[in-house]
Amino acid sequence: MTKLSPEIATDSFLTPELEPVRLRTLVLLRWFAISGQLAAVMAARVMGIQFPIAPVSALIAAAAIMNLWQMLKPQHRMSASQTTWQLTFDLVQISALMALTGGLSNPFALLVLAPVMVAATALNNRRTIALGLATIILISLASILAMPLHDAAGNELRMAPVLTLGHWVALVIGVVFFASYARRVSAEINATSTALFATQMALLREQRLQHLGGVVAAAAHEMGTPLATIKLIAGELSDELGDRSDLHTDMVALRESVDRCAQILRSMGRAGKEDLHLRSAPIRAVLEDAANPHANRGPVVEIRGFGPEIRRDPGIIHALRNLIQNAVDFARTRVVIEVRSGDDQITVTIRDDGPGYSPAMLARIGDPFVTSRRTGQQRNGYDGMGLGLFIAKTLLERSGAALTFANGGPGAVVTVRWQMDRIGADSRIPLGENPSFDP
């Protein structure tokens, strides 16, 4: 949907990717399964239900031995392959138990869905599909090769064929539905968490830049005195060494270098003081600051209207810059930023004359990793990760703003609205102490 800001675009590790679970988690889940299997076996024996107890006990013991062996290993996050094999073991063990205890007539047969559910939340699509197909195959084999259960009187407990087929279909549907559902929810949670991390990185960068401006201003101020001393001494030495042309030339070059350093420090000091001291500024000045990096990218960026002073917050500036960048990316000739203010509300509207948002995407604008409007004239073939609007929306909502996205005018229209008490600032508030710089 929007081009990723430069500081985020370079971080390829932000791409959403589900991670395998820890070994400790799988061991804990297996202990729960073993406990349930033992409880079911004991309850069946109390009820007089007959089944091959020795093979069933051997399968439960095998799961317990596997768990004890895994507990001896150091705790670590397993690879995808290791996780797949662990879940495959559980799937085979549960399917074998199901085959020995009545097959699909066993009321606990639905537990065969557990491994594929875990795979859907922890593994990639290819491994999840493979485990899902293996689950369907093993369910089918367990139903075909099932050993029937018998009651205390020796009567065989068997379901009607139509019910058996219904249970098989229900389990197959369960494999597909629950795995797909778990996969979708897990992927959305992972994507949102990753995008929020990217938002925090973007805000942290803006805050560091603001703090760096204060350090630069202090450094420029503190270094002014030693530079003036160097210049004075260099001038006196230049006058005294007038008869030594080589040394006189060196002293003149030294004075010129000192002058150059002074000019650089004055420029840095002015920029630093702007970042350090402007805790508040008119909203138009904040918008100009946000739009400045995109002023010469092609489309004309026009700011209309004036408004009161607001908090000059790095997060707000970064978010507005992302919105303006998105408008410039897709504008044909012009981007218009309009400010309207009243007694209790400030509204900023950003319009472009580009293609606008597709109707299908309007409801998803602001979600992480959603990309659209890829035909922007200023993009030069670049396809972002869809985090720009998510970052902007998150930062602005954190400041108390309400955002709306729409089409009209003729391209996209973004409206940002604050209540005055959430963003307004009093310029008469003292600035506080300047940071010190220890030479």
TrEMBL record:
Subcellular location: Cell membrane
GO CC, any one term: plasma membrane
UniProt domain Histidine kinase: residue ranges: 218-422
UniProt EC number: 2.7.13.3
Top EC category: transferase
One Pfam family named in its UniProt record: HATPase_c
CDD domains membership: HisKA (cd00082)
Catalysis: reaction(s): ATP + protein L-histidine = ADP + protein N-phospho-L-histidine
Keyword Membrane included in the entry's annotation: yes
InterPro entries on file: 2C_sensor_his_kinase, HATPase_C_sf, HATPase_dom, His_kinase_dom, HisK_dim/P_dom, HisK_dim/P_sf, RegB, Sig_transdc_His_kin-like_C
Membrane topology: Multi-pass membrane protein
Keyword field: ATP-binding, Cell membrane, Kinase, Membrane, Nucleotide-binding, Phosphoprotein, Transferase, Transmembrane, Transmembrane helix
Transmembrane domains' residue ranges: 53-72, 92-116, 128-147, 159-179
Alphabetized PANTHER family for the sequence: SENSOR PROTEIN CREC, SENSOR PROTEIN RSTB
Protein name, UniProt field: histidine kinase
